[in-house]
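Methods — Computational structure assignment.
A single polypeptide chain was analysed. Its primary sequence is given first, followed by the predicted tertiary structure written as structure tokens.
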Amino acid sequence: NELFQIVSASDSSVMQTELIAEAARAWNASPTALQRDFDDFSIRRPRSPGEPQRVETTTAPVPVPEDHLLLLILHHDRIGPRLAGALRHEAVDDATPSGRLLNRFLGEFENHSWPGIESVETLCEDPEESALVNSLMFETPGIEDPVKVANEALRLIHQRFLRRKLQEIELEIAGKAPISPDESFQLRKREFDLKKEMMHPPQILPDT
């Protein structure tokens, strides 16, 4: 199944679920049924040589770029306004506590209402967010070049967001068979524009 092959190419289970839901909306299908079919496909599909089998573990989650930007803001909040001007909210993964906090922090900088590090916990909306902020506050980052770290995190968020958009185009093409030449042209043009945009990630400048 071409759709499931496209979805399985994503290494994030959250993104896979979102892509399945997106396909269900596009095809007017049941998300639950489509997810069940994808789960069956994932179990039965042959693995390519050298492909590791996915195993559920209980280890600590791998840090995401949003974590690094939160850490920077909490220890170098002068960088906040520049991040708010460079990063669009829709690119941030708000399915995670760090993503939700980052978008909230950036909104405060955009509105010139950042309360300062001493009052940052007032921006937390639940115990999980408070625990995350406290853990990052007491962490010793040891970052020599905050701008360099910020730009790398911005690049990763930008690429992840655009890869998802490209996958959505592939899903749309896979769900429209046959597809008219005009539709094909418009979708391929969007694909080309996204790939071009991927080459120009947002960046911030050092302190002047």
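Note: Residues 146-174 form the longest helix (29 residues).
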